[in-house]
Every structure is written in structure tokens, then in C-alpha cells.
Amino acid sequence: MACPDNYSVSVFREEVGQMAKKKIRGNLGVLLTYLGRLYGTPANAIKEYISNALDEWIKAKTRGEMESSCEVSYRLEKSRITIDYNSPGMDAKEFEAALNRVADSMKRELTIPQIGELGIGIFAFNQVGSSCTFYSKKSKDAPTIKVVLTSNSDEYEIETAKKIESRSNPGMTIVITRLHQDPTKPRGSLAPQLLQRFFAEKFDSYLREGNLKVTINCLDKAYHVQPLEISLPPIGQAFTEVHLFTDWQKKFCCQFWFDPSGKSHVSIRHTGVSIIGDLGTYPAYGLEESIYASGFLKGYIDADFLKPLPSRTSFEENQAWVQFLVELDNIRPSLEAEIEELRRVEEEKRLTEVQKKAIEIARDILEQEQFKDLELLPGLRKPRGPVVHPGITRERGKSTAERSKKPGEPGHLGGFRINYKEERFEDGPSRHSEFVSGTVRVNELNPDFIRESKGSEQARLAYATLMIGKEAIVHGDKSRSADYFLEKLLSYLFQVRSKTGEELVKAKYKKTRDSRIRKTGIHKQTMLDL
Predict the structure, then answer these.
(1) What's the predicted TM-score (pTM) here?
(2) Is residue 14 part of a domain?
(3) pLDDT in the model for residue 342
């Protein structure tokens, strides 16, 4: 390509030098409304007023002006939501300064750690309603200031509140009206039960330390927000404090527990407030597929050096964030090893309970008349009473069902001389079970086992009982052909269940059970249908 001549270059430079700068203009009222809707959900937006209350409480406590905890109450009504807290409110000058510096909050200039930074939480009402009135009293002797904000407007009204509207004590009352939905509906996104749990998760550290009290009032009922009870074994105690390798001054603190149910999550907090509620839902360089998102790990990670986004739903992905993820990945193998061991122990406990119940049920069934001709597996026979001749007293000896070794020894469990194990068969997935050396071995690779194991505990119990019964029948067969045919019958049975639908089987079982309950008047848990 030909090079431009000197004249062309000089003209180009002249045009660049003359580029004009112009202001970006727009509807500020609409922009403020959208700013207040950055929080994603109504619950996440309305929690901002608790954050604001805590920020003011922290400042007042630092100055020695407050000794009590921060107390926040919500009153949910069909047409309005009223929020009240005891932390010092703002005076007229502070309101004007905050509304004249939107997204350039004075909080940035404070040395005291604060939850909020940009000062946009005041507009969070836009996610919930279209009008918001603040009644604010800074101190005992200060007047109550009334401020009214409206959606899609860049103007606000401010005045000294009338006597009937004034607060008697320092604090803030916030009234949100022209609501987008009825918060009293039990299934709504602002339902009191939902808010109760949401606030408990978001502000766990403040609630647990007794620094925050939150009450939600709805339809004459009070819902007190309490820290969630954690009765799980702690793990990862070597990682209570983790420093960044690239900056030793920066650190994060971890609290982890093992949840055998696999239904927990790990959250990341900033200044004690949850920002990422579940790491499993956040795409974080593979961590969302690791042990942190497995459900078996419950935990809180406090990382105050990270920078939350304005909506406080995530963090800025800067260098500190990337290094934080690197450190999480470094401690991951140790957490995985701990959880794997705890899961193994938990699985052994579960199998112990399944074995006990399955053997009891199998024994009751196989003692019935139609099975009396079978040669039962050792340990399935019910213990016989002692034979005592008239006039002779004799001590009872051990029956076949009593333990011959101490509890915990291999092959002996709760007095039964039969064991039950779920293992992978070396010859593949075709067989359901086998009986070897006093143990009913169940094949974990079998597709019927895999399907049933994903169901309820009762479904797993029923499967175990069925396998014990199958091996009991095979054990008494001298021709050695029963195993082949019973394996085929089991495959056929589970295919029928799969094709006819599990709900049909459950409905049939429930109908039969309910009929039996009505006849006997007894509500007793029985084995699920097979």
C-alpha cells in the first residue's frame, strides 16, 4: 500500500487535534430508577436498608454513641412496606450531600470499614415500589427530617416532619408505597418466610455475634430472624486464615463444615455480609465444579480485601480476585481429602442402618408359612427360646442370631451373623447380588441399583431387603439354577417398574397402606413396594 504524502499526514493530525468533547446527557430520573434495580431481586434490594442501618450503627458504636445492638424491623402490608431501625439517621445536610453525590458517596472517605461504598442503597426501593418516604432523626435533640423520593424523577422533597410524623428517638423510618407486588402473599418474592431465611444467610455473622436483631411483621405475626443452626462437624480448621501468596497483608478467613446430605453451599462475604451466596452458581475458573460446589461442604469465606460490585451480587474481577481464587484452589485438595474420609465413614454408618433394617424385614418375611421350607442364610433365623424340661432349670445358651464376637469386629453387626455390602463387581454390571463368606454383596454397577440408590432411603432399604431375600432363596437351591432365573426375574421386575412409572407404584402402595390404616387404626411405617 502506498504511503500517504506529508500533506495528508499533516491534515490528519490537524483533524485529530480538533476533536470536540461533549457531555453525555440523558434522563437522570430514569437512570436513578435503573440504578436502584441493580440488585436483581426484591429481597436483595430490600436488604440494603439493613446494610445502611449497620453502617450507621458501626459509626455510632465507634464514636461511643451506641451500646445496644442494631435493631431493624419490617412491617409488610398489602399496599406498603415500613422499615424502622434504631441506628442514628441523617440530618438535612447529610441527605442533601448524599443526593447531590450519587455514586460518589462520602463513605469512600471513611476509615471505618463500611458495608456500602457508593451510597446508592437509598434508591433500592425502586426494585420494590415507586415511592419512598424517609423519616430520619439523627440525635435525641435533632428534628425529624422527611424526604420523599419517586421513581423516574430526579427531584426530591425535603422538609421538617410534622409533629405527628416525628420520631421520638434517633433512627430512621422508611415507608415504601405503590408496590410492584403484594408482600403478604405466602409464595411471593417478599414473603416473610423467604425474607426471614434470606436475611439469616446474608447477615449471619452480625446475627450470630448478637450485633443485629431483625424482625419481620406480617398479618399480625412476627418472624424473628435468627442465625441458622449449624450442627455439622467442622472441617478445614487449618485454613481459618489464609494469606495471599502475592500480598501477605491480604488474607481471608474460612469456616467450613461437612454436610453428609450434600445440600449445603459455600458463600463469600465482605464485611460480614454475603455477596456470593453460593459458589456453585458462580462461574469462577472451575471452582463451581469442585468440592466448593459439591453440596458436601458448607462454609463462609470472609474476604474484606475484595471489591464488591455496586449491586453487591459479585466482586470486581481484578488481580486480588484472581489471586484469591488461586489460593482457594491451593487448599482445595486438603478439603477434598477430609470430605472423602468423612463421606466414607458416613456411608458405613448408613449401610449399618440399612443392613439392620433390611435383615429385620427379610427375617419377618421369610418366617412366613410360604417360605418355611427354605434353608435360610445364617443369621436370618429368629432366635429360639430355651428348651426347659419340667423340673429342670437351665441357663439359656447363645442362639444362632446372637453375636459371637464383640461389636465392631468384622462380619458381625448388631448381633447378626450376616453382613451386607455395596461394592463394584469385577465382572461388570449384569449381576444384582451374590452371597460370599457370610456377606450379601450388592453390585454398585448394576443399573437397577444405580436407579434405586438415587431415590429415597426407603427405596434403598427396599432394594437391600429384596437382595437379601433373593440370596436366601438361592442359598437353599441345591441345583444352583435359581440364581440365574432370579437374576432374570429381578431385571424384568425393575424394567416393569421403569416402564409403568414409579408414581403408579407409589400411589398403589399409598392406597393400600391408607386402607390398612383405616381398618386397623394403626399408623406404622412399612417397607415400600418393590
Answers:
(1) 0.65
(2) no
(3) 93
CA distance 166 to 328: 50
Distance, CA of 35 to CA of 29 (rounded, Å): 10
- What residues does 179 pair with on adjacent strands? 129
Q: How many domains does the chain have?
A: 3
C-alpha distances in angstroms, 410 versus 211, 324, 407, 481?
52, 46, 9, 30
> Looking at this protein, which amino acid is placed at residue 26?
G
- Read off the pLDDT of residues 435-492 as tens digits, 9 standing for 90 and up: 887 788 999 999 999 998 888 888 888 999 999 889 888 887 777 788 999 999 999 9
State the residue for C-alpha cell 461389636: 407
The alpha-helical segments, DSSP class H, found in 411-456 are 447-453
**Per-residue confidence (pLDDT) for residue 104, from 0 to 100:** 67
Q: Are residues 203 and 250 in the same domain?
A: no
Nearest CA to 95 out of 172, 207, 35 is that of 172
Please tell me whether residues 138 and 175 are part of one structural domain: yes
Domain of 211: which CATH number?
Answer: 3.30.565.10
Residue indicated by cell numbers 478439603:
335
pLDDT tens-digit map of 253-266 = 999 999 998 899 99
Alpha carbons 95 and 82: distance in angstroms, whole number:
19
**Can you give the pLDDT at residue 221?**
95
Residue whose entry in the numeric block shows the C-alpha cell 424394567:
495
Give φ, ψ of 461 to 5 degrees: -65, -45
Same structural domain, 91 and 151: yes
Q: Which grid cell is 330?
A: 491451593
Q: Is the pLDDT of residue 326 over 60?
A: yes
